[in-house]
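To the wet lab folks,

You asked to see what we're planning to order before we commit. Fair enough. Below is the target structure as tokens, and below that is the sequence we designed to fit it. If anything looks off to you, flag it before the synthesis order goes out.
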């Protein structure tokens, strides 16, 4: 649902299921945080790591951010982000990074409101 809504991508369910299971089984790959309302997961994000030799420290990448439509604008992402920051204080984390679709102005405003700013880096992929 998230990939289609944000990027019009249909994911292979078997691959996605294996990918989630792999992260849950191998803590070195990262972790998920979720928010629940009435026992139902309504928001989530994934954190992965990137070692920085320049800083001799770790960046945490926030990925797979999703809040179900009916739970948006209720502060759930802010709560998850604040939990990420709290967890990072006890570890070698020098900063947080994420990527966002260029057209997703609502998400960009949310990230900015929490103190994040646009990086001077561009992202390339193959």
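Sequence we intend to order:
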């Amino acid at each position: 649902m998230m990939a289609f809504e944000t990027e019009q991508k249909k994911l292979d369910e078997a691959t996605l299921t294996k990918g989630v299971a792999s992260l849950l089984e191998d803590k070195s790959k990262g972790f998920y945080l979720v928010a629940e309302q009435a026992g139902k997961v309504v928001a989530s994000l994934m954190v992965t790591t990137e070692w920085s030799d320049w800083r001799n420290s770790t960046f945490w990448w926030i990925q797979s951010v999703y809040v179900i439509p009916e739970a948006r604008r209720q502060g759930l992402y802010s709560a998850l982000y604040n939990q990420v920051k709290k967890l990072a204080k006890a570890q070698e984390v020098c900063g947080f990074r994420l990527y966002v679709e260029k057209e997703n102005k609502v998400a960009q405003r949310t990230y900015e409101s929490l103190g994040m700013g646009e990086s001077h880096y561009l992202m390339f992929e193959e």
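Structural context that might help your review: The longest strand covers residues 40-52. The two ends are 24 Å apart (CA to CA).

Thanks,
Computational group
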